[in-house]
Amino acid sequence: MNTHPLMRRQRGVTLIEAMVSLLVMAFGMVALIGLQGTMRNSADLARQRTEAVRLAQQEMETLRAYSLLQASGNAEDRRRAYTQIVSEAARANAGDTIANASFTLTRNVSATPDGLGVAVAVQVSWQDRVGQEQQIQLDSVITRSDPRLAGALSVPPDGTPLRRPADRHPTIPPEAKDLGDGRSLLKPPALASGVAWIFDNKSGLIIQLCSSLSAAATTETISAAELAASCTGSTNAMLLAGHVRFSTGETPDPELPLSPALPLNLGLVAVNAQTPVPSHQCFNNAPAAADPTRTQGVRYYCIVYPNISRTPPSWDGRLNILDLPLSGPNAYRVCRYSADYNADKSIGNTEHPLNYLKVEASLVQQNFLVVAGSRNCPAGHPVDPSQGHFFNSATVEHQPDPR
Fold first, then answer.
1. What order do you get walking across the sheet with 395-399 strand by strand?
2. Average pLDDT over residues 28-45
3. Partners of 396 in the β-ladder
4. SS3 letters for 236-259?
5. Mean pLDDT over residues 154-171, rounded?
6. What is the pLDDT of residue 222?
7. Residue 218 contacts residue 187 (beta carbons within 8 Å)
8. Does pLDDT of 294 surpass 90?
9. CA-CA distance, 66 to 145, in Å (whole number)?
10. Are 211 and 176 in contact (CB under 8 A)?
11. What is the model's pLDDT at position 163?
């Protein structure tokens, strides 16, 4: 018997369907193989990026872990120094030998604008499995701080830590006006005429000078238009500020000095013959003549330009009170409020020494007490609230020079 023609046609269609199914499945298998290859390459690249980030972080933390500021010069001394944080050319084979790529590490180091640290950029580059160049980069700033200060991290705070005044550097005078853009403005006392200074809120340094302002203008009344017209260029200067109080009676009182203010000026002098006087300018609100109504003393502000040939920039000098008679029948004696406030057995720059040495930041609360020339500088009292002593009032002789 012969097969029916319709059945023969159905068998042909079934064969075609099977072949089409095989073709679709073949395309799917090819796509799956390609997907697996892409996933493998992506996983491989992710592993390489993770290793590159680890190498960059390790390099950055190694630089941060310096234990000296200056290298000791001893070839056997393996301690790292801050001065050894310098740029480094490309370092090949920076990764582990078992890594699936060869990594190259490059380090670029440059000084920060304020001179108080270095900006570090660590770049790690490599070639992935398909031959494409890949790289990652970490950027950070490493400040120049004495490693010995790290010991203070283990000392619990005494009482509740105070936050920074107005969320800016504590050396910026409270009367300075916050400009709202990371800067603050201060116009020194009236005798400063048309001068004003702009501070960086983070560092406390004076970064811009303003001149030709109205003599009647104050910190609060200077307009934005006046600032734009009068504040030009940039600078890198430091503030030196404090008070001069007077206690010229029979018994000098360093805690409540209420004698009338006297006319005076202040200025920096050289520490020794080999040290030049730092470039500076001082302003104060002292009266033109003795004023019995002025018992709150004199406020002074000095702008000091550091020696930029030093790393970091700093200055040396001694701040003296000028125009006061220090000898004769109507002589005065100048004392300075100074003591070992932080109990480190030395008088640092912030503690008002006789001579400032290597000053690298702004200084405030550098206060003086003027007494009669026939009286000695009062010894004062340490802090003791139970006895009514709320600040350290110790003073030492400053002028005439005790040395």
1. 280-284, 298-304, 238-246, 368-372, 332-337, 395-399
2. 73
3. 336
4. CEEEEEEEEEECCCCCCCCCCCCC
5. 67
6. 85
7. yes
8. no
9. 10
10. no
11. 57
DSSP string, 309-360: TSSS-BEEEEEEEESS--SSTT-EEEEEE---TT-SSS--GGG--SSEEEE-
> Largest Cα–Cα distance in the chain?
152
- What is the per-residue pLDDT for 29? 76
Q: Which of 287, 300, 301 is nearest to 259 (CA)?
A: 287
What mean pLDDT do residues 142-151 have?
80
pTM given for the model: 0.59
Give the list of residues 6+ apart from residue 63 with CB closer than 8 angstroms, or none: 85, 120, 142
Which letter does DSSP use for residue 171 in this model? Answer: T
Domain limits of the chain? 31-70+78-148
Rounded-to-integer distance, Cα 395 and Cα 369, Å: 8
Distances (CA, A) of 131 to 34, 38, 39, 126: 18, 14, 17, 9
Per-residue pLDDT reduced to its tens digit, 205-216: 999 998 878 777
C-alpha span between 320 and 399 (Å, rounded): 8
Distance CA 60, CA 136 (A): 13
Sheet strands side by side (includes 315-322): 265-269, 315-322, 356-359
* 48-65 pLDDT tens trace: 898 999 999 999 999 988
DSSP sequence for 46-71: HHHHHHHHHHHHHHHHHHHT--BSS-
CA distance 282 to 267: 6
Residues 346 and 339 sit within 8 Å (Cβ to Cβ)? no
